[in-house]
Specification:
This protein is mainly beta. About 5% of the residues lie in helices and about 40% in strands.
């Protein structure tokens, strides 16, 4: 199928807090095992157009992320990285109910994500 042909490697980033030896902490990010996914930007997600641009300092780009049902379940607010270009996405939906039925030929799970930057 066309959707499966457009899947590419992604990985989940896992944060671990470490002591910075100055009374604070640092976040260290490690990559999980790779999984296949496809991220497609929603056409109406670029809010930099029109009058909304004056009200918001940055455009918020929203994506639909499709994964096979066999891929690991991505929890709400987890960070994923597209390996091809290093672009980061933060999952902003719970996909427990957004998957194709078990008997369907399409074996997909749908997430909503936004572009993200690590702090």
């Amino acid at each position: 199928m066309l959707l499966q042909k457009n899947m590419e490697p992604f990985c989940m980033l896992v944060s671990a807090r470490t002591d910075d030896r100055q009374g604070g902490f640092r976040n260290e990010w490690t990559e999980s095992e790779a999984f296949d996914a496809c991220a497609v930007q929603r056409r109406d997600s670029d809010t930099s157009r029109g009058t909304e641009a004056a009200q918001k300092p940055e455009a918020r780009r929203v994506y639909d992320v499709l994964t096979p049902r066999a891929a690991p379940l991505l929890p709400f607010h987890c960070i994923i990285r597209r390996k091809q270009d290093g672009r980061l996405f933060r999952i902003i939906s719970d996909s427990a109910d957004l998957q194709t039925p078990k008997g369907a030929k399409l074996d997909l799970r749908l997430y909503t994500a936004e572009e993200w930057r690590l702090a």
